[in-house]
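Project standup — Tuesday

K.O.: blocked on the structure for the chain from last sprint. Re-posting the sequence here as requested.
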Amino acid sequence: MNTLERIRVVLTRTSHPGNIGAAARAMKTMGLTRLYLVSPLAFPDSVAEARASGATDVLEKAIVVDRLEAALVGTHFSAALTARRRDWSVPPGNAREVVPELVAQAAHGEVALVFGAENSGLTNEEVALCSLPVTIPANPAYSSLNLGAAVQLLCYECRLAALDPVPLAEAPRPLASFEEVEGFHRHLEQAMTETGFYKADNPGRLIARVRRLYGRIRLEREEVNILRGILSALQKKPD
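H.V.: unblocked you, prediction finished:
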């Protein structure tokens, strides 16, 4: 399997079926085939098929899920497209910086490019589920991009990176899977709640800050196991 076949394109809460078809066409022209749809307003739809313009095979194989978490199961690296800086997320990188790392990680397993709803983009919670945010360095005076155009640009960058790999500063590390990272965050929240350090009725920004902290590290599987082992040992410690 080549690296492009390990890249998922995830469209979240798409409101217009034509944009799904445009995204499928953009993917196929660049050799990507793995389309995931999170709670689309209308799919399947004849408008999507018309806009796909021959890429109906991508639509036919699309996987529809109800939550972004379900679309990311089985991945170990994901990039969330966002047009704005998020206060409580890992600092974003531009597409040309981030995509070579994403393609390099595809050599080790499934990865994902995640796009938000046309009018509102991704929520902060959705961005936090991904490994890092990515931006398209568009004109700051008018940075609004059609969803299909955004998918085309990112898929183009993926194809460039796959055909002519850019040497990375360091070899990509095998990262923990999405499920392993999310399991760690649930375990950590549980431990913090048990100790009284975290209060669900007055959460503040603690969970977002903790996610940002570990997001910058990009945990490996062994590191997740060590951290969860520490948490388990602390939870068993007698008062």
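K.O.: great, moving the ticket to review. The mean pLDDT is 90. The longest helix spans residues 178-195.
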